[in-house]
Structure formats: C-alpha cells, structure tokens
Amino acid sequence: MRALSRVVASFTGEQDQPAARRTLEEAHCPQNINTALGKWEHHKVFNSAVYHMLCEALARKLTAEERFAVLALTVDPLLLASGHKEDSPAYAESKPPENWRDRQATDKEVKAVTILQAGFRGHLVREILNSSKPGTKENLSASKILLDMWPKVESDADKHAVFLLRYIIDHSEREAELYPCQQDEWTRITFTDYSVSLQDTANSWVLVFREVFHVHKEMQLVPKVYSPIPNCLLHVINNDIGEELDMVFNKLATHVYQPNKLGYTFVAEAVTPESPPAGAKWRMRLIGLREPLPKLSHEAPLNTFSVKEFRDYYIPNDKNLICRYPVQVTTDILGTIQFQTSKPDVLIHLSILDQEREVASSTGRGHVVIPVFCFLANKDEKNQKGCSTEDKGVKVVDTPQQRDGKSDSASDQHQPPTETMVSLTTVCVVSAVTQTLY
C-alpha cells in the first residue's frame, strides 16, 4: 500500500513516477512468477484489485472521471473492458433503438461497428497513455482526482492493504503460493461486534435484537452472544426461503452462509422474570475466517420496537382454537410474533394464514415464537388516499374467537422484506393440542 501511495503522490513527477512504479512492481509481483505471460496475468489481477479497493474505500461506484484516473494510474486500457463494464452508467442505461430490436445486423453493419470500435479503442489507449505521462495537462487532471480520492484509502490503510492482498490471492489463477504470508491463513480469524441496550420492560419476554445482514460471498460464520440475561436465544432466518437455520441444544450451529438476494435476519429473544439491570447491554460477535464479514442493511442496529400485547382467557371449544386475530396491513412491515400460556406444558401451534392458507407457523410448549415475518400491504390499498398508517401500518382487529394467555407482536419498518410475504388481510391463529389450559 505504501508503494502504491508513492505512485499517486509522485504521479506528476517526470523522474519520481517511473521509480515509484518500479518499486510498486517489486512490492506486489511474486518472485516465483518468471514468465512474461504470468506477469501480465498477475498485473491484470492487481489492477482489478486496485479498482475494487477504491470502490470499497469510497463505499460507492466510481464516477466516469474517477474511473479514467484509475485507468491512468494502472496504465491498463483493458481494466474496464470486462468484469466492470456494468459500473458504467452508459452501459447500464443504454437501450437499442426501436428499429434495431428483433433484427440481426448485416455484414456491412458488423464491419462498420468493428471499425468504429477499433478507432475508439485506439483513441482511448492514447488518452490513457497521455494521462499517465508526467508533464501533460491530462496527467495533472488525473493526479488531482487521485489525490482527492486517496485520503479515504489512507484513513484505514491496513484494512485496504489487506483487501488488495486478499483480492489478488482469491482471483489469481495460479495454484502455487504467491506470498509467504499465505501460510498464516489457517491461524487467522476476524470478528465484528454489534451491541444494543436492553430495554426496561415489565414483560417476561423481550425482543432484544432484529437485524438483516447481507452476505456477499460464501463464508463460514459463528455468532457468539454475550447477554446479561441467561435465557437468551438467537435465531437466524434465510430471507430468500423463509427458513430458520439449524440449532444444536438451542445454540446456532456453525454454518456456511451462501450469498443470497434478501440476506439473513438475526433475531434475539430473551425470557427474564424481572427487568434487566439498568444500562445493561446485549452484544453479538460475528466470527469468521476472513473479511469482509456480513454487513448490516443500515448503519446502526435498532433496539426499539413497536409492541402490541394482548391478554385474555381461553374458552374451551371443539377445535381447540385459542385465539384468532385478523391483521390489516396498510404498509409493508417486518414483524415478530410471540405467544405464551399460563400453563407451561401446553403444546401450542401458532399459524399465519393468508386467505386461509398457512404461510408461516411454529410449534412450542407453553411458549412459541415466529422470529420474523414480512407483512406486505395490498398495492391497491397503498395507493388509496387517506389509508391509515398509524401504529406503523398494522392494525390488529379484536375478534370474539379467542382466548388465552398472552400474545406479543413487535414490528418496525426499517428492514427489507423476506421472500415469505402476505397481503392486506392476514390472520394469526393459535391452537392447542389439549384444552386443559388455566
């Protein structure tokens, strides 16, 4: 990283820049690569690593001017020719004209396009070489852009140096070891802590933590919970399929997380007979073998939720139905549903029905939880003027078909939906295998 920083700092120096480039090549090019083809392939991977490292440091895609400055820095006209062309706005938004749709180009048109592409490629190569050459106006412009970007890189130089090294190792096509430090890989772990304050509540059941994490590459991950409340349980749900990951003795097993579209929701619940200590904090540590670890869907974890609680008595009936609540949803919302009875040995089945079809369920004894479920409002209802959005978009309609125990529902609007979704009117049903409830 220091060698690369020296190239940026001396980018306009006619004597300093060539020397800095030679030092950079000696620093990143492995000594066991001796052929010209091997060096060319390694330089291609290194240049791509520099591009991605800058995107990571800036936490965004590069602008057209910044991309061109990176081309001048790497002196690699082919850097954006493949693999990164989707970053170009022109590539993402371009559409063929109407008269070009559903037709094949003629031989003359193909030849003409080939000539234009060759001419443009030659022009681009000349522009890049000119921008990388000290003493030109284009070189000064590229240097200014690079110097504007570089403070973000130097603010956490060690992190971005590791990113560069990791990218080179992961994307190199060589099977041989590139650097001696690769031998340290099996002894290394990385972790990130997420902490929230425990809310002071009179309820025995508490929703402590609920956040969506996005996994960008396959990784083995172990979550470790540090809680002042002993009876704390952590659930992880794959949002793409709506299924909870396996547990062993009420603890999450080591799992290889695969990249998915909607991420994984981590939900922590706790049962405590008394209020938690004042100022108590709950902490989760995500432990992995390498960076980057999964990222939150937003900047800071939330620890406050809108809670609705219902208490009532069970009336024996032929269907063993404890209660049934219609839920009217006026806006997309993520919710957690918990139900418990005063008799601890009752086998309970909690269901969410959409037009009488069960879309989610959970079974437990004396206590049952659906850790996460996304209720989606009907599109027509969303567009109606004056529709109710109070209580964060959820209205639970009390009905006479209930009754027992206690039901809690916690919801918020700050998380992306899971793949399991229900429409405007949803019904939550609780039934019991036995009627001996007290």
Automatic annotation (TrEMBL):
UniProt domain Globin: residue ranges: 1-171
Transmembrane regions listed in the UniProt entry: none
Basic and acidic residues bias spans: 383-411
Disordered, as annotated region: 383-419
Domain of life: Eukaryota
Matches recorded under InterPro entries: Androglobin-like, Androglobin_IV, Androglobin_V, Globin_CP_ADGB
Pfam families: Androglobin_IV, Androglobin_V
UniProt signal peptide: none
Protein name (database record): Globin domain-containing protein
